[in-house]
Design a protein that fits this description.
Helices cover 62% and strands 0% of the residues. It is an all-alpha fold. The protein is elongated and about 60 Å long. The chain has a domain at 1-42. Mean pLDDT is 80; it is low at 1-13, 28-45 and 309-315.
C-alpha cells in the first residue's frame, strides 16, 4: 500500500494518500484534502526532469500544447527546445516505426532545420519492405505514416529547393499511399508563394485529378491554383463545379481565387462568370458555410477590380 502511495505522481495527493493510510491504521478519521495545499514550484530547472519522465506520446502532446497557435520561430525561444530535439533524435533510431513517427513529427514541431536532410531521405525512401511485410500490405521500409509526416514537417520548415521538388514529384507520381499524395499537395499549397509557377508540379497534380481518393483530388485541385502556369490544367471545371462533394467545389473556388491573386487569370475571365451556376451550400460550417465564404471572396475580388476600372474612367 505504501508503494502504491509513492507511485502517485502528484506530490500533495501522494501525501494525502499516505496520511490517510496511517490514519486508518490508527483508527482515526481521514484528513481533509483542503488542509494540504500543493507546493508552488518556481524552479524552471525541474521542467526537464518532468519531461524526461514522459512517454514519447506524452512528449508529443506536450509540444503540441506549447506550440498551438504560435508562430513557427517561437519555439526557438523556449528553454527546453534543445532537450525536445534531443528526444526526437532518440526516437528516430527506435526499431518501432510508431516511435520513429513521433520523432519525425517533433522535427517539424521544434523547427529543427538541422534534420531537414533526414526528412528528405525519409520522405523519398523507396527501399522495399521485406517480402513478409509486403504480404500484409507494407510497401516500403519507411511506412506511409512516416513518409506523410516527413512531408508535413518539411512544409513546416518552409525551405524550398530542388531536393524537395523532386521528393514531391516522386510522392505525387509513385507513392501508393493516398495520404502521402494528399500531404504532397498540401505542402505545395503551403509553399506556393515560394515555389511560383511550376509546370512539372502542375502536370503531376493534374494526373491525380482522377485519383480514387476524393481527398487526393480536392487537395490537388487547390494545389494547382498555387503553382499551375495557367488555369487550363484544371480541365473542364464543370466536372468540379457541379460535383456532389462540396469539398471538391470548395477546392475549385480556392484554386480560382489563387489564380486571380497570382495574376494567372483576370477578374473578367469567363471561368469566374461560370461560377454563378455553382451551388454554394455544404454540409459543414464553422460557423459560416466555408464554400460560400470562398465564393464571396472571389466575388469581392471581381467587384474590387470593377471598382478600380470605374475609378480610372471617372476620376
Amino acid at each position: 500500500m505504501a508503494g502504491a502511495a509513492f507511485g502517485l505522481t502528484n506530490t500533495y495527493r501522494r501525501e494525502i494518500f499516505a496520511e490517510s493510510v496511517k490514519a486508518e491504521l490508527r483508527g482515526e478519521r481521514l484528513p481533509r484534502q483542503a488542509k494540504i495545499k500543493a507546493p508552488v514550484v518556481k524552479d524552471r530547472d525541474l521542467e526537464p526532469a518532468r519531461l524526461s519522465n514522459l512517454s514519447p506520446a506524452g512528449v508529443l502532446a506536450y509540444v503540441h500544447q506549447i506550440t498551438e497557435g504560435k508562430q513557427q520561430h517561437w519555439i526557438d525561444s523556449q528553454p527546453n527546445v534543445e532537450l525536445l530535439r534531443y528526444f526526437a533524435d532518440g526516437y528516430l533510431v527506435s526499431p518501432r516505426w510508431q516511435i520513429r513517427n513521433i520523432g519525425v513529427k517533433l522535427i517539424g514541431l521544434t523547427d529543427n532545420r538541422y534534420r531537414r536532410k533526414l526528412l528528405l531521405a525519409l520522405a523519398g525512401d523507396r527501399t522495399p519492405a521485406p517480402v513478409w511485410k509486403r504480404m500484409i500490405w507494407k510497401d516500403f521500409r519507411q511506412v506511409g505514416f512516416i513518409r506523410r509526416n516527413a512531408l508535413e514537417a518539411l512544409a513546416r520548415l518552409g525551405t524550398w529547393d530542388e531536393e524537395l521538388r523532386q521528393v514531391l514529384l516522386c510522392a505525387l507520381k509513385e507513392d501508393p499511399y493516398y495520404e502521402v499524395r494528399v500531404q504532397a499537395a498540401r505542402a505545395i499549397i503551403r509553399l506556393g508563394d515560394r515555389i511560383g509557377s511550376c509546370a512539372e508540379l502542375a502536370e503531376a497534380l493534374k494526373a491525380n485529378l482522377k485519383h480514387g481518393s476524393p481527398e487526393v483530388r480536392w487537395c490537388c485541385i487547390e494545389a494547382l491554383g498555387a503553382v499551375a502556369p495557367e488555369a487550363g490544367y484544371l480541365g473542364n471545371i464543370d466536372n468540379f463545379m457541379l460535383h456532389p462533394n462540396w469539398r471538391i467545389r470548395q477546392a475549385l473556388l480556392n484554386a480560382l481565387r489563387r489564380f486571380v491573386e497570382r495574376g494567372v487569370i483576370t477578374t473578367d475571365n469567363p471561368l469566374l462568370k461560370r461560377l454563378e451556376n455553382l451551388i454554394p451550400t455544404c454540409t459543414d460550417f464553422i460557423p459560416t458555410f466555408p464554400l460560400k465564404r470562398t465564393l464571396n471572396r472571389l466575388y469581392d475580388l471581381r467587384q474590387g477590380k470593377a471598382g478600380e476600372e470605374s475609378g480610372r474612367k471617372n476620376p
